[in-house]
Amino acid sequence: MSKERTRCREKVLEFLFQKDLGQEIEVDFSDFSPQGQVFAYKLYDGALYYKDLADEIISKFSKNWKLERIGTIEKNILRMAIAEMFTFSDIPQGVTVNEAVELAKKYVSPEAGRFINGILRNIVRNWDEVKKLKEGFVDVTSEN
Fold first, then answer.
1. Global confidence as pTM
2. Predicted pLDDT at 142
3. Which domains does the chain have, with CATH numbers?
4. Which residues, including other chains, have CB under 8 Å from residue 85's CB and lie 6 or more apart?
5. Long-range CB pairs of 123-128, under 8 A, 24+ apart, other chains included
6. 75 Cβ contact list (under 8 Å, min separation 6)
């Protein structure tokens, strides 16, 4: 499942990137096993659900980097990793960080991998503070 999860993350990143660019997309994870589809849909939905909170967390824990200066791919990798940590408590945070770093190295550059690693490691080190931010999170996209 881990190789499939890596492919799922890549596909989720692709959809998040396209959505961020304002493109019309049809989200489809049917190429994956049933377990992979569940993982991919939950990760995609989580990344969208937690987008504003993730952006707040990224802004807080990215030293000397304003959110608008971070590239679109890198931002989406960070959002996805944060959503994964919130959504899948059974996946060790270190695995999530490593997967995010590999995505950044593959789709951006080795430097982007180091950048992503630094921010996510800072987030993990301050996880209690992150959880408090999550507790105060109000999803403004919900209709309630």
1. 0.91
2. 45
3. 2-135 (1.10.940.10)
4. 91, 93, 96, 123, 124
5. 123/57, 123/61, 123/82, 123/85, 124/85, 124/93, 124/94, 124/97, 126/61, 127/93
6. 20, 55, 58, 67
Once rounded to an integer, what is the mean pLDDT over residues 6-10? 97
CB 89 within 8 A of CB 122: no
Q: What tokens does 7 get?
A: 């492919």
Least confident range from 108-112, 113-117, 118-122, 134-138: namely 134-138
Helices 34-49 and 72-87: crossing angle in degrees, nearest 10, is 110
Is the distance from CB of 26 to CB of 64 less than 8 angstroms? Answer: no
